[in-house]
Specification:
Blueprint: H1 32-38, H2 41-69, H3 95-130, H4 133-147, H5 151-162, H6 166-193, H7 196-203, H8 208-216, H9 221-244, H10 256-264, H11 272-298, H12 322-325, E1 332-343, E2 346-358, E3 363-367, H13 374-381, E4 390-392, E5 395-398, E6 401-402, H14 410-420, E7 421-424, H15 428-431, H16 438-449, H17 454-467, H18 473-477, H19 486-497, E8 504-508, H20 516-533, E9 536-541, H21 544-550, E10 553-558, E11 561-567, H22 571-574, H23 578-585, E12 636-639, E13 642-644
Parallel strand pairs: 3-9, 3-10, 7-8, 8-9
Antiparallel strand pairs: 1-2, 1-4, 1-5, 5-6, 10-11, 11-13, 12-13
Helix pairs in contact: 2-3, 2-11, 3-4, 3-6, 3-9, 3-11, 4-6, 5-6, 6-9, 9-10, 9-11, 10-11, 16-17, 16-19, 17-19, 19-20
């Protein structure tokens, strides 16, 4: 069962231009969704049945144990009557009251077994996230083997291992339920682990256990809760089955399974005892199943216990960037970067031999079609390529520290990445944990890496939200991501990166799905941060105009390689690679003929699954030669600050100069309102 949160968009991408005063956040009505659910037929029915079962489990034994245990030899094995509604057993005891009294033991043991199974299953399912690769794969293999066996067979096996009796049956059913919960947890955790907000937490250096408890488990809680409540009904049935077979509750205690076994002996002459017990099992199981369905509707976003907001007027002093600026060389140095994945016909290498540097305070843009390896290069630099992907390079240094260690470099490297490298992902909605308030997510970085307490971290959060021009910062810090508009979510994402001491911001398509006004604001914000704090920027974009007008240098990628590198002010006039010229030609401008179709690059982009000999762009190139189809060109220097990988590059100017080309109004660098 997938976890999806249907969030309402409470604002427009264009934030209001007028001033907004910070006010205290109103209390979130935590019980409102439960009260609303009780007004629905499903919620009312589930609540009524579950309340009935729980009341009987609590009050039936003290109220009717005497009547249930009273022996009446004058009325042995009688049918239903006014005195005994469901008849009597072989000792003349009232079957109806015995069924009511047995509710406590039957339901209690079933709930204990369900909780045990859920707890063990969640631990096993979450093991791959917490443990290393080898131990995690071993646990996964054990779970896969256990899931292959039918649950009843496992219950019988464990019942023999733990022995007969209530305790043994409870342990047997609990461990029999565990593989199903483990498989569900593994599947859900694997899907959530690839979300951008988990990757952002990893960039921030959040430990594995905290990553599991704060970012993964809260986002898979809904299906786990639903399956736990539904599993209670299955555990109740299984427990009754073991007692029916004589492996569960033993005399003189009794549960519904024992009563069903006793009533079965006379089912042809007196069916009422067996029917009464069977009806009780059905009602209790139905109550748990309906409660599970109701919980699925009610538990959309788990309640966050701490609703406090930072105190008004509290601000923290900016922390000096000693760690980020201790290294005097380039911020990022990459040589021979390769990223590989296993494929059906052998290894696939979507990034092959990429090399570049990013200097302090420099802005470098990366452009190319989808699938060219831009985002994967950024993930490799951030150490976010997970197994079975592999990252190899001749050199991969960030602030003078190599990032090529197999374990990610240990705690010191993770702390360096968490404080000195910031990631701004493409989709801000999936970049934030939907179950945590914005303020808590930003504050987590300061708590983990800057040693701040909770109050100091939240105060720094408000300060950073103000720095990125989020209106009503104190109130917004107490809101959830779905309560932010698209533009404010992207600003908050930038604020998340500024919680540490970033020396490099990697922005992966930061303006996707934003209108031109908000796009201008986000790009202006990044430019202002770079100018004020000397932060380097690696900007990934499909829009060549965005990169040309906001970056110092441009890297053009195709088929996992850099095919051209040149200063941005010369991009429109001095580009030499045919692919770069083709990208520039596809961008419409004010002089484009309205009666002509838009320019496109012929053919299809090269894929890593089907590598070609020679130049990857050769099948689409108008200047292709025989050598292009056999020899792969190297990236060589053709002019100062200009490298190109082409056997037959252009030599004539490409287009009017940048100053003559009309500027895109969305890319003006005006200050934010």
């Amino acid at each position: 069962m997938a976890v999806e949160y249907q969030a309402r968009k409470t604002g427009q991408d264009n934030e209001p231009q007028h001033a907004v005063h910070d006010t205290a956040a109103p209390a979130r009505p935590g019980g409102g969704r439960w009260l609303g659910l009780l007004r629905t037929p499903l919620g009312a029915g589930a609540a009524a049945l579950l309340l009935l079962v729980l009341l009987l489990a609590v009050f039936a034994p003290p109220l009717w144990s005497g009547r249930a245990d009273a022996i009446d030899t004058a009325h042995l094995l009688q049918g239903p009557s006014a005195r005994h509604w469901m008849g009597t057993d072989n000792l003349g005891r009232d079957v109806f009251f015995r069924v009511l009294v047995a509710t406590r033991l039957s339901v209690g043991l079933a709930l204990l077994a369900t909780l045990l199974g859920a707890a063990v299953g969640v631990v096993l399912g979450a093991a791959p996230v917490v443990l290393g690769r080898t131990a995690g794969r071993l646990v996964t293999a054990v779970v896969n083997v256990a899931v292959a066996f039918p649950g009843l067979l496992l219950a019988l096996f464990f019942a023999v291992v733990f022995g007969e009796g209530a305790k043994g049956a409870m342990l047997a059913i609990g461990f029999a339920l565990a593989p199903g919960f483990a498989r569900l947890t593994q599947t859900l955790a694997a899907s959530v682990s690839e979300r951008d907000f988990v990757l952002a937490a990893r960039v921030a250096g959040v430990g594995r256990m905290r990553l599991l408890t704060r970012h993964i488990l809260p986002n898979i809680a809904e299906p786990l809760i639903v399956n736990t409540t539904i599993g209670a009904g299955g555990a109740l049935l299984a427990f009754s089955g073991l007692s029916f077979l004589g492996l569960g509750v033993q005399a003189p205690s009794y549960d519904w399974g024992r009563l069903l076994g006793e009533g079965l002996n006379g089912i042809y002459t007196h069916p009422a005892p067996a029917l009464a017990t069977g009806t009780a099992v059905i009602i209790a199981g139905l109550a748990f199943n309906l409660a599970g369905e109701a919980a699925a509707k009610a538990v959309g976003i788990p309640t966050v216990r701490d609703r406090r907001t930072p105190a008004a007027g509290t601000r923290t002093r900016n922390t000096p960037r000693r760690g980020a600026y201790a290294h005097q060389g380039p911020v990022l140095e990459v040589e021979g970067l390769r990223v590989g994945f296993p494929g059906p016909h052998g290894p696939v290498t979507p990034v092959r031999g990429v090399g570049f540097t990013v200097g302090r305070g420099e802005s470098v843009g990366v452009v190319g079609e989808s699938g060219s390896g831009k985002s994967l290069t950024a993930l490799a630099v951030s150490r976010l390529v997970e197994h079975p992907g592999t990252v190899d390079a001749e050199r991969l240094d960030f602030l003078g520290v190599s990032l090529l260690a197999p374990d990610g470099g240990g705690a010191a490297t993770r702390r360096l990445l968490g404080t000195s490298l910031a990631m701004v992902f493409q989709d801000p909605m999936t970049s934030f944990n939907p179950t945590m308030r914005i303020g808590r997510q930003l504050a987590e970085v300061a708590e983990q890496h800057l040693g701040m307490n909770r109050r100091q971290a939240l105060s720094r959060t408000v300060e950073r939200l103000r720095d990125v021009r989020v209106p009503a910062a104190r109130r917004r810090a107490a809101q959830y991501p779905h309560e932010f508009s698209g533009g404010m979510r992207q600003r908050a994402m930038i604020g998340l990166g500024l919680m540490g001491r970033p020396a490099l911001i990697i922005a992966d398509e930061p303006t996707t799905a934003l209108d031109v006004t908000v796009q201008r604001q986000v790009l202006s914000l990044l430019g202002r941060i770079r100018a004020q704090d000397g932060v380097a920027l690696l900007l990934i974009s499909h829009d060549i105009n965005v990169v040309a007008q906001t970056c110092d240098r441009v890297l053009v990628m195709y088929a996992g390689r850099i095919v051209e590198e040149l200063p941005s002010h010369r991009l429109l006039t001095a580009a030499r690679h045919p692919y770069t010229r083709a990208l520039i030609a596809t961008v419409p401008h004010m002089e484009s003929a309205l009666d002509q179709p838009l320019t496109v690059i012929p053919g299809r982009p090269a894929t890593a699954e089907q590598p070609t000999a020679g130049c990857a762009f050769a099948p689409r190139c108008a200047l292709v030669q025989d050598r292009c189809r056999t020899d792969d060109p190297r990236l060589l220097t053709s002019a100062p600050d200009h490298r190109v990988a082409c056997w037959n590059p252009h030599t004539t100017p490409a287009a009017p100069s940048r100053d003559e080309r009309p500027a895109d109004p969305a890319l003006e660098t005006d200050e934010l309102p």
